[in-house]
Automatic annotation (TrEMBL):
Residues 21-34 have a biased composition (Basic and acidic residues). GO terms for molecular function: ATP binding; DNA translocase activity; helicase activity; hydrolase activity. Keywords: ATP-binding, Helicase, Hydrolase, Nucleotide-binding. Residues 611-773 form the Helicase C-terminal domain. Transmembrane segments: none annotated. It comes from Orbilia brochopaga. GO terms for biological process: double-strand break repair via homologous recombination; reciprocal meiotic recombination. This is Helicase. The keyword Aminoacyl-tRNA synthetase does not apply. It comes from the Eukaryota.
Amino acid sequence: MYRKKFVPPLLKKPPTNQPTDTHDVEPPQKKIKLEPQTSSQKSANSDSSSQSNGVRKSLSIPRTHAGPGSKFNPPRLIRRPLAPVNDPPGGNEKSEEGSQNNVGGSRHYFNVLWRKFQARKHKTWDGDGVLAIVNGTATLQDVNGRDIGSGRVSKIPSEGDLISLGGKEVEIDSLLAKSDFLAGKPFLKSKGNLLDTSATVRPAEFYAKGSFKSPLLAGTTAPKTHPQKATARFDPTAEGALVMRRPTVTVESSLRNKTIVDVVVDPVLSRHLRPHQREGVAFLYEAIMGMRPYEGRGAILADEMGLGKTLQTIALLWTLLKQNPAHGQPPIVKKAMIVCPVTLINNWKREFKKWLGNERIHVFVADAKSNVRDFTHGPIYNVMIVGYERLRNIQDKLKQCQVDIIIADEGHRLKSAENKSAQAIRALATPRRIILSGTPLQNDLREFFVMVDFVNPGILENYSTFKKQFENPIVRSQQPEASKADKELGNARKAELTRLTNLFVLRRTAQILSKYLPPKTDVVVFCRPTKSQLELYKAILNTNLAKRQMGSMETALQLITLLKKVCNSTALLKSLGKDDDDSTFSSSVLEEVRVAGSALIANNSSGKLKVLEKLLITLKETTREKVVLVSNYTSTLDILEKMLNSKGFHHLRLDGKTPTNKRQDLVDKFNRVNSDIAFAFLLSSKSGGAGINLIGASRLILFDSDWNPANDLQAMARVHRDGQKSHVYIYRMMTTGCIDEKIYQRQITKQGLADSVMDQKAGGSNFTSAELRDLFTLDTETVCNTHDLLGCSCGEMGDLPEEGAEGEEEEEEEPIKMTGWTKASVVDMDQQEGAFRKATLKSRQRMKALLEFSHINPGKIVRQVTELHDGDSDSAEQQEGEEPTAIIEDEILRRVVDENPKSVSFIFSKNSM
C-alpha cells in the first residue's frame, strides 16, 4: 500500500531578546566554534537556567559588548561537559521495577504464553512459560523449567506485548514476583502457593497496564454490571433464553448465605438448540447439580444416533465452565475431560470449533505427542479430549489435577467392572460423570448395571444384590417356560428398575427428527443363495468338525464366522485368517470338505453380490445419487471394491488401515464432489461406524450384519443426519434361510448374538442349547424364515400386518420345539403345525418390531398377476400398463426385481417421515 513519507512536526523555537531592527544585527557565522566555559560564564549559565525552568541546561549563549567601532559580536555556543552518572545497584528491586525501560543492570520476570511461529489465520498457544530478563538478555522457559529460547531485548515489555524470542512468539501475561521466581513456584507441580495471600507482592504489581481491553467476540466475558447488584451472566428474560433450574439451599448446602442468580445458557449456543436438545441440556444440568431425587451426580444421555448428543454436551460444559448459581463464586467446573474412541477425537475437536470457535475455549487433545502437563497445570486449557486407550497410560498424571466432570462417549464400552478404562476414570474420584450412548442396553442387564454404577456408584447396591433382586427375576420371566408367578415378579421388578433409572437416564428416539430431516425408507432385502453357495453351505454343516462345534457354546462363533463368509461370497474362503483368528478351524473344515469329495467352489458366487451389482448399475444409470457400502470385513470390502473397479465406478474407501488424520478429508471430499468423481464410499463399520456424517449419499447398503446390533445401527445412521436434503434409503441384505437371517432375528429381539453365547459360560440362561442349534439349520424351501416365525396373515402383498390380540393362549404356552437336523420330508406335518401355532404368539411378541414393516413377496405378486391375466380378462385390462411389482415404492429396487424376480425372495419395507 502506498504511504506518504513521514515528516516530523516543526519545533517552536524559544523566544530571544533580539533587537527589532534586523538591519543592525550581523548574521551568525556559518561555523560555530566551541570553546570551554570560564567561571564567569558558568555563573551566567546558572542564572539563565534558573530563569528558563531548566530548559537547555547543557548550552549557554553569552552576550558580550563590542569595543568602540564595532556593532555586535556574534554569540558563541559552548558545550557543557557531561557529568558521569552511576547506575543503581542490581540488588535494588525498587529501582528495577520502577524503571520499565531501563534494560541494563535490571532483572524482570513475567508469566507468558508461547508458541512456535504459525502462518494460519487462527493461531493457538503451545503452552505456558516464564520469561526472565537479566541485564537485557531474555530467557524463555516452559513450565518444566527447560530453556526453550533466548535473545536480547531493547526494552522491558509490558502486559499484552508480543515479542519474538528464539524462534517463538511470546505474549506477556502478567508480572512475576522475583521472590516467586527464585523460589521456583512457577515450576512446581502444585501451583497453589501462587495464590498465597501472604505474598509480599501486591495484586497491582502483577499488571503493568490497568486498562481493560474488550474482547471482539460476544460471550467470552461477562457484561459489565453494577458490582453490588447480583445479576445473571445473560438476560434470563430475553426471547428464547434457556434458563436452568435454580437450586435450593436444602439441595446444595454450600449455597447457604449466598445470593442465587439464574444460570442461562449462552445465546451463542441456545439459539441453535432444538426443543429436545434444550430439554436434554436442562436434564443433564439438574442431574450433575444434584437437583434430582436420587443419590449421585451422574447421568446417562441415551438418545439415538443423530439427535445431537455432542451439541447438548458442549452446551452443558460451556455453561458449567463460565457460570455458577451462587453470585460471586467461581464457575462450577474448571477442568473437564471427554473420553471417547480414538476415531471420534477429531470429531469432538471439530464440533467445539464449530460451535464455540478457537477464541472462546481452548481444547486439549491428549495424543501421543502432547504433554499432559499443559492441561493439568496450565491455565489455557479447560477441556481435554482423550481416547480410552490413552487414558489408561496417563491416569497417574491426571491425579495431579482436579477434574471436575468426566463425559464418556460411546459409554457402552465400559460394559464390565474389570474394564481398565473404567477403573482409570474411577481412580480420578470425580463425582460428576456422564455417559453418552445410543445403545445403553445392548445385550444383558449386567452391562447396564455396570454403566449405572459407573455414573452413580451404589445406587443399585452391588452386583450380587442387583442380580438376585432384578436381573434373575426379569430374565426368568422372559423364558418360554416361565410360570405366571415368574412373569408377575419379573414385570414388577422391571417396572421398579425402569422407574428408578428414569431419574438419571434420558432416552429419545430418532422419531423426534421427523420434522427436521427428509423421509427415510428402511428396506430389508432377502436374496436367494446361488446353487454353489448352497452346496458349500451344506457340505460345511455335514462335516464332523462342524457338528462338534455346534454342541460347544465356546467355539460356536468360529463356525458362525465361517458360514457368514459363505453368505457374503464363496471367494472369501481364499483369504482365510485375514479378518479373524479362526483360520485353523476354517482350514480344517474346508479340508474335510475336500476329502468328502465335495467340490469347493470359490468363484465369487453370491446371491447378495448379484443383487447388489444390479442395484448399483441401476442407480448409476438412472440417477445422480451416491451410495455408501458398509461391511464388517475388510476382505468383503476388497471384493466390493473389485466389483466397482470392473464397472468403472469411482469410489473412496475408509477402513482400519486408513490413517486417522486422513479420514475426515475423505469424508469431506465425498460429501462435496458429485457422483462422477466419487459414486460410492466403502466403509468398515468397525472403523467408521460412529462420528462420521456421509450426508453426500442418499442411499446406504449394509452388506452383512454384526454380532452387536449397536454397530449396525450406528453404521446405518451415517447418511440420515443433519444436513441431508434427499430422501434416504437404507438397505439391509440377507441370504435367505442361512445364518444371516438367524443373526437378524436375534438383533430384532434386542439381544446380541456373540455376547449371548458368552453369557452361557457365565451361567446365563438367555440363549438355550436348542436356540443355538437352530442357528445352524439351513432352510432351502422358505422364501423368508423370519416372516415364517411371525406367522402373520398379511397376504405378503405390501399391506401392513394386523397385530393379533396379546395374551392369547398365554397360560397354555409350551416351550418351542426345534426340529434340529431332522429333514422336513420326515416331519409329521400335523405335529409341526401345532408347534408352529404355539410358537407364533411368542415369536410375534419377540419380533413385533417387524409388524411396522410392509411384507412383500415378489414371487407371489408375479404369480398372482399372471393368474389374474390368464383367468379374468376384465381384471387384466384394468391391470394393463401396471408393473407386477408396482407395490414396491423404491423405483430402483423395483427395477432390479422386475429384471430377475427370483433373485429377491422377500422384502420388508418401512417408511419413516
